Protein: PPE domain-containing protein
Organism: Amycolatopsis dongchuanensis
Amino acid sequence: MTIPEPVRRYESRSHEELAREVAEGNDPAAAGQLGARWAELGTRLRESAQALESLADRSGEAWQGPAAEAVRATLAKAAAWSDQATEVSRAVAGAVSGQAEIAARARAEMPPPVSYDPVAMIRESAGDVVALVGLSDRMARRREESEAARRKAIDVMAARDAALRASVPDRVFEAPPELT
């Protein structure tokens, strides 16, 4: 899982940079496939745990004594680890799917940049007295539109990062047990 930096200063970045960051490498379908692979791993680990538990149960009918108990204890340790790994795999699968949705939502909510180039606006109005009359108002409106879109982009990025941090599972894979 990629945990975003706790505090990123998006205010110092351009709207175009923010839009690029939210779009590049944002492939919900690929993330969904990755989540499905984690879920499949969880299923296989659960099947392994069940097989180990079944083997231990069945061995009790035909095999007795200290050696049999030692083998059953070892199988129980392996099954318990497999159960724990199953739960972590399922949590990771859910987190990956959730993060894909978060990234897709951020991409969908990202407003397009509104260009504000005062020099270009002045050039476009040069020689047109009517255009020059309202130029300062148009420039102010365009600047406000551009800044409002940029502020919205900053909010989208901050919300995305907070949601990504919240979606990281709090479980980790334990080391496999010693089986000797």
Summary: The two ends are 33 Å apart (CA to CA). The chain has a mean pLDDT of 91.
